[in-house]
Amino acid sequence: MPDLKLEDIAKRAGVSRSTVSRVVNDRPNVRADVRKRVLEVIRSTGFHPNAAARTLASQRSWMIGLVLPQSVSELFTDPYYPHLVKGISQACNQHDYTLALFLVSTKEDEEKIFPRVSRKGLLDGVIVQSGHYGDQQIIHRLAKSNVPVVVAGRPFRSDNISYIDIDNIKASYNATRHLIQQGYRRIGTIAGTSNSTVGLDRKEGYRKALEEQDRSIDDSLIVESGFSEAGGYSAMRQLLPARPDAVFAASDIMAIGAMRAVREADLRIPDDIAFIGFDDLPIATLSDVQLTTVRQPVIQFGIKAVELLIDLIENGIKPARRLILETELVVRESCGASRRQ
Length: 341
What we know:
alpha/beta, six-stranded mixed beta sheet, 17% strand
């Protein structure tokens, strides 16, 4: 079949060329039955609009940038990020966008990448994975450049910044409260570092649950760590002398490292020390004692981030939008609930 043009699709569908253009570019003001008819012709003919012509017609590049302020090693060793990127990629495919990935691990990286992601016409919008204090500069530089930006994770300063997140305080409160309800007295936490909103909020939820029960905060039961298996292992080694009977870890991968340290100390899970993690990634169910954890919809998080960004692209960046997704506590063996019923 020879190369088809918009005019050919219009003739076959019995509509104008401009109507076909609106359908191809997913524009409004097309009746549902007309849109359906045009799409059926496009599918039956295998028509693919010329990308350059599409860009010129819409004044959009149909490209979205994803900025990850992480090193390459962290991107591929932390199981959270592949799931996040999977959700973002799925949504880009669904909405016919191309995804461009930018890794920023140093100030030099930021200076090289910023002109590219902020250049008018190169990207329609940008998603920035955030949560660390050091990420704030690139977020606010992008916001000042009037590029549509969605931050994945609550930024430290959120004025006029659109972001998507979960309620980390509430989720961590619920996890700690569950351990309290199971009768544990010395509940420790392996918290994320204080230079991240995730670390601060999950620690705050832990403290809030204890304070609500009039329990004093024992600093010896609180250890900060990076979000890694090695970080969880090291933090648990520091916690063991404080003799916790339960631990809330700020991520599943941290909990897995902590559980390894407990086993090396010849202690049993959950008999000697119970655990709750955070994320509910597949790794949570791979251990011989499956991990009780807070389930956050990581893939859906990525999908919703793209949809929020498209809203900014098509409807303007003001006012700033906030989208908070729900979490769920998934009870498995590691918290000992089944043995305490």
